[in-house]
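Q: Got a minute? One more chain.
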Amino acid sequence: MCTPQPNAFNPCEDLMGYEWLRVFVWFVWFVLLAALGGNLIVIIVLLTARSKPTVPKFLMCKLSFADFLMGLYLLLIASVDVHFLGEYFTHAVSWQNDGGCQVAGFLTVFASELSVFVLTVITMERWYAISQAIHVNKRLRMRQATGLMFFGWIYASSMALLPLFGVSGYGAVSICLPKEARDVWDIVYIMSTYLQRLCIHGDIRLLHQYVPQGQSQ
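A: Always. Here it is, folded:
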């Protein structure tokens, strides 16, 4: 008998549940293995460069860090799947309630929230630089970019910490995503993560539509 009750997010014998999903995750992980090394190299190069730091380099460093953390999450999930292959049901409760699953959940939420935030800032910074190309002094300053990233880190950390303090939770599903909806606050939290991405996607598309107008002024 499987515990917890098997469903689409809680398989019985394996953490992944479906063979095609395991193959897909491992394929993605092998691709991201190169990305892990690539992002790490980008971070090291940007941090050790002797040239004066610029806003685009600063933002790319933060984006590389977020992508690096997401790669660590995929590595952790894939490793646990291999370790419990064929007998996940005997370890499901302990895995979904121990510190490893909480760490994995924190990593994926923090990385995804920070990545979306940084991508939004990069898009807005590029749009502003293009639309105000003839005004050399109208650029996002390093102090402003630092302030935005400080807010982004606080926001991403808060979203990742909420499930650890009872809002939704990382232990509801085998891959440690905040999918538990027990009350209205859980539902608000889950919906906000989806709506945030939809709104940001719409804002980015809207900003791209205004770039030609900014160039023609």
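A: The two ends are 68 Å apart (CA to CA).
Q: Perfect, thanks.
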